Amino acid sequence: MKNIFGKFFIVIILIFSIFSCKEQVVRTKQQSFEQTVYLVPTDTARGLLNVKIELEYPETYASPAVLDSIYNTLVINMFGKEFLGVPFDSIPKVYAQSIIADYKSTLSDLQEYEKKVANFSMGAFYRYVEGFPLLNDGRIFSYGYTRDSYTGGTQGYKSFNYFNFDLKTGHWLEESDIFTDNYQNPLANLLRKKILEQNPQALSLDSVQPNSNFYVSDEGITYLFNVSEIPLNAVETEVFLPYGDLNTILRKDSPISYLAAAAK
User: Fold this and answer.
1) What's the gap between Cα 186 and its chain centre?
2) What is the CATH topology of the domain spanning 22-172?
3) Is the separation of the CB atoms in 241 and 249 below 8 Å?
4) Measured between alpha carbons, how far is 182 from 109 in angstroms, rounded to an integer?
5) DSSP letter at 86?
6) Rounded distance, CA 55 to CA 251, Å?
7) Distance of alpha carbon 97 from alpha carbon 109, whole angstroms
8) Residues 142/135, Cβ–Cβ less than 8 Å
9) What is the average pLDDT across 218-239?
10) What homologous superfamily does CATH list for 174-264?
11) For 234-261, what is each residue's pLDDT tens digit?
12) Among 75, 178, 242, 264, which residue is least crowded by beta carbons within 10 Å?
């Protein structure tokens, strides 16, 4: 009988442990909003603006203080301080409406011109924002977002931005939290080497430096250089650095040291 109760007690502990671990993972929720407005509602070929916001955002976490820290950092960087008081699940619609209001304000200045020029068209403008988690293992929460827009000219512009949070504190991890002192030159050299391996024709890499735009994963650290960050490069450049290549400059006491150790 004692043996039965002992086994039952162990099972209860295991179940409790499993659910406790799950509670340490940031729970996310998807929210989206899309709307199209037209320069001339009666003639949809004369110009339009399409706004689309798609977010998988952090909704709940065991520590409200940590969640607030993550929330505030993401809102400020993705949308601006003026959206801090807006619930995350309402941001897609509110943000889209602010973009549309700016568009309509611009249109008001063009109304007289539009009436005089029969073939006048502003073209098809768009503004897209997408936010998504990358790593969510209960210790680190990595998050990325993209902006894709076209507001005239020969081409649009797309950018990628990444964040990594320590789930013990909610702290947004910087390079200095992860790498040892004087990491800049060794890391820059490694980034340049990897870029050259990906693109042997790459030029002017001497100016390439760590840009703090990275995310961590089980296998390593991925840096992203947006358009124009690398001279003469017309597209974004993604550079993956395995933990094995970073051993000499990784802090042994960093919040991601467990990932580097597991990858060995």
Assistant:
1) 26
2) Heat Shock Protein 90 (3.30.565)
3) no
4) 53
5) S
6) 33
7) 19
8) yes
9) 88
10) Heat-shock cognate protein, ATPase (3.90.640.20)
11) 688 999 999 999 999 999 999 999 999 9
12) 264
DSSP state of 25: S
Residue 171 has pLDDT above 50, yes or no: yes
Work out the number of other CB atoms within 10 angstroms of the CB of residue 143: 27
Distance CA 25, CA 62 (A): 8
Residues 134-170: pLDDT tens digits? 999 999 999 999 999 988 777 888 999 999 999 999 9
Q: Which tokens hold the place of 215?
A: 């995310």
Pairing of the two strands 48-60 and 124-136:
parallel
From residue 78, give the alpha-carbon distance in Å to each of 32, 74, 122, 226, 238.
15, 6, 27, 16, 20
| Best-predicted range by mean pLDDT (11-15, 35-39, 96-100, 119-123) | 96-100
Residue 162's nearest CA partner among 177, 181, 147, 183 is 147
Short-list 187, 184, 144, CA closest to 165: 144
Residue 12 has pLDDT above 70, yes or no: no
Give the Cα separation of 95 and 84 in Å (integer). 12
pTM recorded for the entire structure: 0.84
Q: End-to-end alpha-carbon separation of the chain, Å? A: 45
C-alpha pair distances (Å), 116 with each of 46, 76, 113, 120, 255: 14, 42, 5, 9, 63
Q: Cα–Cα distance between 71 and 89 in angstroms, integer?
A: 12
Domain ranges of the chain: 22-172, 174-264
